[in-house]
Amino acid sequence: MTEPWRTGITTYDEKNIWVGGYAIGDLMQRATFAETIFLLHAGRLPSKEEGKLLDAILISSADHGPGSPSAATARLACSGNRGSVSSAIAAGILAIGDQHGGAGMECMEVIAEGVAIAKSEDLTLQEAAEKLVDNYRARGARVAGMGHRQHTSDPRKEVLFGMAESYGLAGDGVKFMLALEDAVAAKVKPLPINIDGVLAAILFDLGFPPLMGRLIFIIGRTAGLSAEVAEELAREKAMRIKVPVTYDGPAPRKLP
């Protein structure tokens, strides 16, 4: 006999749908989308402050212009296949990875490692951050969550960390990430905490596992990708192939 699939997320009958044990109608009337996302992934409804913070994280990840890898990929896929909105958005999501929007998961693992070092070796978070940076430098590895191609200071950092502090939700994750920023500046060079690092720190303090660092970016960015694809359909012609390209290969030559 085939074992049934198991889930603790959603169930239904002929007349009802329950998400996390709550009737869908009640959630529709009394919960926000961000609160429902929290419920889906944590199995509980968030506090008002936790819900606002997750909502802000989703907004911060929604869009960063058509030149970001996910948006550019979605628009290019839409340009070549205007009949499938879903494939264009899916293409954009597939462009999210370790270098673009996906480093939050790795950064949450870094935070967990640093906090564990501090506790196990009776170090301050600053001392643990400095030790971790030394370890990464010795391996020639880059610390996740640091540095941004467009920003010398990510404007989303102060807002999200400020909200976490004001709500009393900033814990070791936020503290360690700030310590890590100082340690990297002292031992490598000044690098701003990017959005991956910011959301990683807050999600760590909210009790989510590292995988959420990547998933929450995908959830938030999907909203932006839908807008990018809609704009591509509304404002641009199909087959936009005149992308700026500089050719530096061989000059025209005869086949021997």
Structure description:
It is an enzyme of class 2 (transferase). Its EC number is 2.3.3.16. Pathway: Carbohydrate metabolism; tricarboxylic acid cycle; isocitrate from oxaloacetate: step 1/2. GO terms for molecular function: citrate synthase activity. The chain has 256 residues and is mainly alpha-helical. Among the domains are: 8-46, no CATH class; 103-205, Cytochrome p450-Terp, domain 2 (Orthogonal Bundle). It is built from 11 helices and 3 strands; from the N terminus they run E-E-E-H-H-H-H-H-H-H-H-H-H-H. It has a 3-stranded antiparallel β-sheet with strand order 1-2-3. Strand 2 (17-19) and strand 3 form a beta hairpin. The radius of gyration is 22 Å and the shape is globular.
Secondary structure blueprint with pairings:
Blueprint: E1 10-12, E2 17-19, E3 22-23, H1 24-30, H2 33-42, H3 48-61, H4 69-80, H5 85-94, H6 103-120, H7 125-139, H8 155-166, H9 172-187, H10 195-205, H11 212-235
Antiparallel strand pairs: 1-2, 2-3
Helix pairs in contact: 2-3, 3-8, 3-10, 3-11, 4-5, 4-11, 5-11, 6-7, 6-9, 6-10, 6-11, 7-9, 8-10, 9-10, 10-11
Defining key terms:
single chain; about 260 residues; mainly alpha; Cytochrome p450-Terp, domain 2; 3-stranded antiparallel beta sheet; 3 strands
